[in-house]
Write a structure and sequence with these properties.
By secondary structure, the protein is an alpha/beta fold. Helix content is 50%, strand content 11%. A hairpin with a 3-residue loop joins strand 5 and strand 6.
Amino acid sequence: MSTAQTPQPDATAGPPGAAGTPEHPVDRTPETSGAPDTPAAGPAERADPVPWRRRLLVGLVAGLLAWGLAALLSPEDGAARQLGAAALVAVAAVAVQHLVLVPDRAAEERARRAESLLAETAATVRGGLRRYDELQHGLTRHTEDMKQLVETRLVPPPRPAEPEPPAPPLVRIESVSDLAANFAEVLSPGLPILSTFVRLEMRRVIGHLSDLTTLTAECPGENHDWMLTLTRAAEKSICATSTSVDRTFWNSEPASRYLHAQAEAIEQGVPVRRLFLLESARELDDRLLRLCEEQQVLHIEVRVAVLPELPPHLLRGTTNDFIVYDEAVSFEIDQDLRDVNIRTRLIARQDHVHDRMKRFRELWEAGMSLRELEVRVDDEEDGTWMVDRG
């Protein structure tokens, strides 16, 4: 059997009106708590038509809208200024609601308090912005001071400029001999005979270079150095003829270096074509066939033409040896009546090179390929071909 007990006040409860946690507040009004010592709400609070929570919510929404507008319209002001403007709008919205929507006898006091709170908030925001500007200015100044300190303490000061040595006197060049003598003086190895040798070689080389300004240069005898250097300098093509005078050349040491240079040019993508010109069909033998096969192994395109068997219009041209490099420079060797090479010439005149290339193409088309040469040599050895006996 239960007995009714008189409710006792909670000893652990806080003061009236403060019960509950911040998360779950409890309203102790006379209708719900029944505590006789809870003070009744004043006339102003009973007459308040808008709760404080709604006012704060309206102020918060107004502040967020103000923050968004500030960020959209003035993004360069920075987050601090935008937050300050939003805070002012939020506080103003709450204050306006409090002043307009709560008509009671303490309106003036509350208005005055709202103005004071608004002024304090504005002052606080202005002070915060001022301190932000001061902090930013201080950081900038500190960075500049540190940079100057590093430059003055860690970077060594520039050394005083040393006086420049006097410029060498200008040498007046009046002739090739003077230029060669000046080079020999600079490159002099010390010994008198070597100094003289340097001077003479420089005079020869500079003389050839000077002649090339007229697109023509020549030297006595065979100049294998020119031939090798032009082969290494070629970038587009090498078109060469080889007469009976050169037959002994292919067994020499310069020929080995020449073929090696041409093989390197072919590896670099420069095609090489060689046309052997024969004075008579008697030269169609196994030795010529082996020579052509050796060069074809190096990927040199080879053809052979027997001059007496060519059409009459092709016999009216020159038959001396020439090599055209890049269709721009003609390397030529002249012979005397005893078929001795007496002169080497370089000719870069456009009309002359054009004629040489035209002559080479005509002879190339009329020549025999390596396969045709093999058949012709076999026929010559069997005696089944009409051989020129003249």
